[in-house]
Amino acid sequence: GQQLNQSPQSMFIQEGEDVSMNCTSSSIFNTWLWYKQEPGEGPVLLIALYKAGELTSNGRLTAQFGITRKDSFLNISASIPSDVGIYFCAGWTSGTYKYIFGTGTRLKVLA
Amino acid sequence: DVKVTQSSRYLVKRTGEKVFLECVQDMDHENMFWYRQDPGLGLRLIYFSYDVKMKEKGDIPEGYSVSREKKERFSLILESASTNQTSMYLCASSFRTGRYNEQFFGPGTRLTVL
Prior knowledge:
The structure holds two protein chains of two kinds. In chain A, 0% of the residues lie in helices and 56% in strands. Chain A is mainly β. In chain A, strands 1, 2, 3, 4, 5, 6, 7, 8, 9, 10 and 11 form an eleven-stranded mixed beta sheet that branches. Chain A is globular. By secondary structure, chain B is mainly beta. Helix content of chain B is 0%, strand content 56%. Chain B has no helices and eleven strands. Chain B has strands at 4-6, 10-13, 19-25, 31-38, 42-51, 54-57, 64-70, 73-78, 87-94, 104-105, 109-113. The chains are: A mainly beta, B mainly beta. The A-B interface holds A 1, 3, 30-31, 33, 35, 40-45, 48, 50, 88, 90, 92, 97-99, 101-104 and B 4, 6, 31, 33, 42-45, 48, 50, 56, 58-59, 90, 99-108, 110.
């Protein structure tokens, strides 16, 4: 099935650093979702975006719905060790039932 | 607090066994999904249901069937388990219409077929 391009694939950062990751698509979406998944667990929804240009925060996390509706960005500020995990995006288009998922960004935080 | 629960976190079954994976959501969602997640392959949709007794095949339905007798419950059935069905299985749910299309996942079932 289709997957969204997500970059970077992995990141090793120092505690306290800021993190940026993005998802791009060849198709437009009406909804962008960002998830975090820890080993052996199901994905947990972090942020949902519904409008082009929308910027939404959830604590230290900020995500944006790209103006073209074909991309989205997630930023994590002042990373901490518990931010470790795989982050992935998902896009949804009205009139469909399918969510298209990104390939994931594996984040490791060094204390 | 939204909740999707799955009947087992870990399962070990033998080749040829019939396997049932159960999923329950308490959010009154119309849509329910079953995915499998494998390293390097990402999340792949097995089946989708948009209403009670309604189902649609996803990208990889072969070897699987589903049942949705009640709105809150969606079951995945492996009629005759095979080793290539060893995987992490994730259930999810969402509203069918309206502005909010968040999809919520359960904790996952790690299935090993020997």
